[in-house]
Amino acid sequence: MRTLNLAHRGFSGRYPENTLLAFEKAYEAGADGIELDVRMSKDGQAVIFHDETIDRLTSGTGKVNELTVKELQAIPITNPLQSDQKQQYIPTLKEYLSWVQGKALLTNIELKSKDELEDGLEMQVVSIIRQFDLEENLIISSFNSKYIQRVKHFMPSLKTALLLHSCTEKSIQLADDLNADYIHLKKGSLNPRNILMAKGFGLLINTWTVNEVDDLKTANRLGVNGIITDYPDRLKTIQADQ
Ligand code: G3P
Ligand code: CA
């Protein structure tokens, strides 16, 4: 089985992260899938954005969950990477799913939160997913095990992934206890021992965020299920050569 090429926040190495432009460019570059981050807006809509605040990526300021979708989408994303591209705005999850519907792309939705869960984000995401016929092509991931537990409870057929900063037998055991389908291993924890351990629990493995050519080659050789990268074009070239 070929290792899947998953574009981290879209083709974020060259286009503004988590925008419809970055997703389109990842698709054009031949990615097998897209990883994106989801948070809740003030008016209870799932929006695609990585940070807790909009400060790093827009000219505005404030927390995502203290702004409505209308307010969020009135502030353009600043784009230091490609000045010749159309102005981008923070997309909603619904806008993304409408775009991806009908395309042969896997989507990894990461649920973002701090220790406390944001109000009903997992329920909101599950309810949006039910409106689209995409369940087969989705993975819901989170560092927060409560999200994984609740998603599996509300929609047991959805595939889930526990994100791990470090890999121990205890963390793999937790993923197994949660009935997660995958662990998502940080690049530094990717080694044959951890892969063997996870496989021993019947877990699938994706790794993040792998960008350098040598690291991509190594991860590709190790035979994980998927590699999450800012540069899907690099991985595509490596896979064509190997
Ligand atoms: O899903 C893997 C990776 O995206 C997790 O870290 O901070 O890039 O969302 P971050
Ligand atoms: Ca992410």
UniProtKB/TrEMBL annotation:
In the record, biological process GO terms are: lipid metabolic process
According to the entry, every stretch annotated as the GP-PDE domain falls at 3-239
Query: Which is an annotated Pfam family here?
Result: GDPD
Q: What is this protein called?
A: Glycerophosphoryl diester phosphodiesterase
Instruction: List the Gene Ontology MF annotations in alphabetical order.
Output: phosphoric diester hydrolase activity
InterPro entries reported for this sequence:
GP_PDE_dom, PLC-like_Pdiesterase_TIM-brl
Give the PROSITE patterns listed for this entry.
Answer: GP_PDE (PS51704), PIPLC_X_DOMAIN (PS50007)
